[in-house]
Amino acid sequence: MSRSSRLCRYVEKAVGSSPQSNFYTFDNLLHELDVSLSEEELETNDSTRLFHPRQRVNFSQFKQFYDEHYAQNRIAALIVWKSIRTFIKGSIEAYQSSSNVLSREYFVSDKLGKNRCKIPLDLRDSIYDIFVQYQAWLHEQRMWDDCDRIHFLLQRIDEAKNTSSLSYDKVKWSRVYVDVSVVLLFLCIVSSPTHSLTIVLPSTYHMHIQEVQDYTQVEILLFFSISGVGSLFLAGDPAQSVEQGTDFRFEEVRAVGYYVAGNRHHLIPDKPKIVNINFRSHAGILNCAGGFLDLLSTFLVVPSN
Amino acid sequence: MKKDYGLFKGARPGVFHQVQVDQLSSLLKTSLQGCVILTHDESASHWRDELNHPLVYGIREAKGLEFKSCIILNFFSDIPSSLQKPWRNLLKDREGSDFELKYPLVETHLKLIYTATTRCIEQLFFAETTSSIAGDAATRWLTTTKSSNDNDTTHNTEAIATHNNVSDLDSMIMTNDEWCIAGIDNAELASSPDVDMEQSISYLNRAIYCLDKAQNSELVAKANTHLQSVQLRSKSIIQDVSSSSDKLEAIEREVAQLTRSLLKEDLLSECTKLLDYINPYVSTYTSEMLEEKIITKIQQT
């Protein structure tokens, strides 16, 4: 599974299709989960929330909102979007809170850690004010963002699991199997991740996620929720994290794994494995890519709080 | 983490600075037919139409894919105007404090250009069709910044990329390094024992053409010296010697000058061949001196 449809098609062509394999984009996976869960929910209640694509807020729409309301603000729109998407709504701590939103107290404190959240502490209160207004605007305009949709899906998967409903059986089949044949500069393998719901899942199924650097913690939690014991394989390169608003570190994948494993320590994901040989390009190209990496690491240093 | 330089050596990327759109279009229709164009995602459809080339991808769209030959087109000139100067400052190592907070999009751009660069398997070009603050700075940065290879303990004097001559369409079909490799291959073939004089001259003419496209004047000079020597050896000396001693003296002078040049260019094998060629016509004393002072030393190296 990957975000890009081209990549999906490319891997499908390289690996070859089979009745046991499905190749999904992230959007298709969400749609399939949505449909599977909705079928039974519609029979039992009418609580299903609609997430119409036209009402989705991405960074471009957020920037329009931001420019209209905060034209003079010294904080860049992308910093605010990243704060909301990665931390306030998209972090594992946000999922754990009753409102699925990180509290102001938590966000403005140093609990997120300075290596994880590079937003200076003195800006966080102002960012949270903007977030509050953004949430009100979303509600008023009947719009939604990716975090809203993921939280809603996670909630429904939990409900389906707890009631052992038929729709949960459908969800467990809605999994993707993609062989990571494309060689990546860095590779993260997370083995043995699971939580209680995976007991019902056949362990012969595997879920392979490409370009994991583009996903927030709650999106990664969704993968954990629908994959089997030891069957989640995540691969990615943080330097290719081009999804606006996602501040990715592999440590955050493990944090999700810790949450999922709970006190069953044997289920805690392994540490990431690093592949530091590129099998695709030769030294002339990699040396040039390394020059851009130098700029990325040398100039975009962690600001002191 | 230790830097990765892959499993194979290869040509550095080429840079087309201020290349004309119709030149690019011609190249894509002829010598670079399968080449993939990578642009900012918002510009991809524009360039697909403008170049009439189906293989135009937005960088986000191309993420995870790989292509044998790529041109990263107008990445720097299409950066928003408000970020042109910050980008220049970054490339000139004078970004200032709080750079990341003031210009967070630069980080996204850096990840995009890194992603674009790593899509390529063999041949990579950076092309900028117009002059821009960031584009001009990037061209300078790419063609002057010395690479920092962790594995290379020697002083590395090579830039990250090379500057292609955009006034000559032919020279744009390969990167300068690739032209250089083609030139050196031809020059080496010219020295093979199984090629005759005529073939050798032909190989050296090709070598000079390629090295000229690579804009490598030092190697052009070396190949020219080699060519002069082979051309001289290809002439029959017997007629000249029998007609006049002045002519022999002139040939000796020419051989002496060429020998000096060949030694200077480290073309030792050709130098031996040239001295063997003149040896039957020089005095015993000269012959012995050449043997002692030059040929023996060449054989010892």
Written account of the structure:
- The complex is a heterodimer of chains A (305) and B (301).
- With 305 residues, chain A is mainly alpha-helical.
- Chain A has 2 domains: 5-25 and 175-298, no CATH class; 57-143.
- Helices cover 49% and strands 2% of the residues of chain A.
- Chain A is built from 12 helices and 2 strands; from the N terminus they run αααααααααβαβαα.
- In chain A, strands 1-2 form a two-stranded parallel ribbon.
- Chain B has 2 domains: 14-148 and 157-173, 3-Layer(aba) Sandwich (Rossmann fold); 177-294, no CATH class.
- Chain B is elongated, with a radius of gyration of 26 Å.
- Chain B has 14 helices and 6 strands.
- With 301 residues, chain B is α/β, with parallel strands linked by helices.
- In chain B, 54% of the residues lie in helices and 10% in strands.
- Chain B has helices at residues 21-29, 44-51, 59-62, 84-91, 99-102, 104-117, 133-144, 176-190, 197-213, 217-233, 238-243, 245-264, 268-278, 284-300; strands at residues 14-17, 36-39, 56-58, 67-73, 120-128, 162-163.
